[in-house]
Amino acid sequence: MSAPALRPRPAPGLGFQAIGAEEEALVLDVLRRKEPFRYYGADPAKPPPMAALLEKEFREYIGMDYALAVTSGSAALEVAMAACGIGPGDEVIVTAWSWIACFTSIVRVGARPVLAEIDESFNLDPKEIARLATPRTRAVMVIHYQGVPAAMEPIELEAHRRGIFVIEDCAQSLGARYRGRHIGTWSDIATYSFQYNKVATAGEGGMIVTRDQRLYERAVRMSDLGNYRPVHAALAPSQEPAFAGGQFRMSELTAAVALAQLRKVDKIREHCRALQARIAPRLRGLKGLKLRPIADPEGDLGFEPYLLLDDPAKVAPFREKLDARNVNCGARTGTYPQYNRDYVKTGRAHTPAASPFRDFKEWPAPGYRAEDFPRTEDLTKRFIALPLGWLYTKEDADYVADSVLAVHREMFG
Ligand SMILES: Cc1ncc(COP(=O)(O)O)c(C=O)c1O
Fold first, then answer.
1. What is the pLDDT of residues 258-268, one digit of tens each?
2. Is 392 left (phi over 0), alpha (psi -120 to 50) or beta?
3. Cis omega (within 30 of 0) on the bond before 364?
4. How many domains does the chain divide into?
5. Ligand 1, residues 16, 71, 98, 99: which to mutate, most atoms within 8 A of Cβ?
6. Which of 247, 262, 277 lies at the terminal end of a domain, its last residue?
């Protein structure tokens, strides 16, 4: 079989590529009412509807009792940890291969991130909890990496046996399921992002869900300068004292875009899963590579199949050949092992006293160096990501598979 004729490069992107009349209508509604602030507007007795409606539809969609809209996924992580009461002296287990905010949000509340290995799914290896837990461990933060659900059942069992919180970071995977249930419902508290690259976007924005009334009230207070306003008290009467919070409130304009986008998540999911279903079966069983294993393939969003090559030396040439055929195949997806980031190498927080690493005599200490993570090092040098998107057609998907097969023939014979 000869190599397929060159096709134009498809435009990548998820939620932002689906922005249309629905987002416009809701944003215009906010502007025409002149009510961009969520807690009060023209009529002080009647708070504007958009953020409250987004929270209602979000919690109904995910299947959780409470949802709180905030300014970003990073803010959501900080708020979630503050809600759990995590702070100085505490440790939080998080995968070394995770987004910047996963690490920094732990440092920002004064706790110490403890880095864990991933497994071949690129999510937390559940066995890492037993290896890394200490009497100071208060939580494990589980990232559902690029649309693929982590193995929540063993993670939840191990964490709860030890009496530690599970925080699910669903920023990259809104709409993914695990064992038939939405991710975000497997933990004490879960977070989402509406940043530009996400399945649903408002440019920026975040969400927190929980079924725990106490965590909800504490999250609200952390997100709104210690306040707990009537719209929240109507859902869950106050039981918690005020404390000094931050200010991470979502605006009505952001909520309008996020709401229109939320209503499109399942369409985007179905689209990407259908594209992936045309590609994945054709790439199974190829010599020298495999697709990343998925804890629950039925729950995968399907927007980014990963090839795992046996030989790391073959990754760069394989990728270059795909790229030359106009196949999008990112070298990185914005994620780096945390131990390679500047703030881990320096161990700094915004001021020395705030660094959870200040008592280490030597830095980077064991557990914060590349040589401590043989599996993460190995796996992250052997993958090629094949992002799919809202504007990809069936023909684009077939072309991705044809091209991978052609490059494979060329390189592996
Ligand atoms: C896994 C993960 N967590 C948290 C975030 C932070 O979200 P935001 O950019 O909205 O602050 C991101 C954003 O890319 C992410 O990918």
1. 999 999 999 99
2. beta
3. yes
4. 2
5. 99
6. 262
